[in-house]
Design a protein that fits this description.
alpha/beta, 5 helices, Dihydrofolate Reductase, subunit A, single chain, about 25% helix, two-stranded antiparallel ribbon
Length: about 170
């Protein structure tokens, strides 16, 4: 069974739009493209690179695919990220893309069932009604010099809810 790992570059208030470049994604009048650049440093770059080294395929949404497909195939061949991204299978979720230009790309039109086939059995990440799960940190968190934070989680069973604060206080 394949494991789907989500790499998400997000601000503390939940913005994940256009981290890479100033004109990357202007949807909705967004004017802060490239917001991630000031937080990149050698250590965070090494962590990102290590994650890229471990990937076996890319699963992308259409907008991210368009951004990646417009850059990585023409990046210098000696760039290790380009070499990895260009060599692995790529899957893009889209109802409108019919003939992808990037070599090794498969278009997924029925994302829920097709991702299930790629991933195997288990929790369906792209389906409404997914049962929540608890997660545990599996590697020590890393804070990088310019403020980025790297966290690695693994599923850790069912969500525990309903903590009785009053009962907990009475025990202490």
């Amino acid at each position: 069974m394949g494991i789907i790992v989500v790499d998400l570059f997000s601000t503390l208030d939940g913005v994940y739009q256009a981290p890479g470049g100033p004109d990357e994604d202007r949807e909705g009048g967004f004017e802060f493209g490239g917001w991630q650049a000031p937080y990149l440093d050698k250590e965070s770059g090494e962590a990102i690179g290590a994650g890229i080294d471990r990937l076996d395929a890319l699963l992308l949404g259409r907008k991210t695919y368009d951004i990646f497909a417009g850059f990585w195939p023409t990046a210098p061949a000696d760039d290790p990220i380009a070499a990895r991204f260009n060599s692995v299978p790529k899957y893009v979720a889209s109802h409108t893309l019919t003939d992808p230009d990037w070599a090794g790309t498969t278009v997924l039109t029925d994302v829920a069932s097709e991702v299930r086939a790629i991933r195997g059995t288990g929790k369906r990440i792209f389906r409404d009604g997914t049962v929540p799960a608890a997660f545990a940190v599996t590697q020590p968190p890393r804070a990088f010099p310019k403020g980025a934070i790297w966290l690695v989680y693994e599923r850790a069973g069912d969500v525990v809810t309903g903590v009785d604060i009053e009962a907990e206080r009475a025990e202490t």
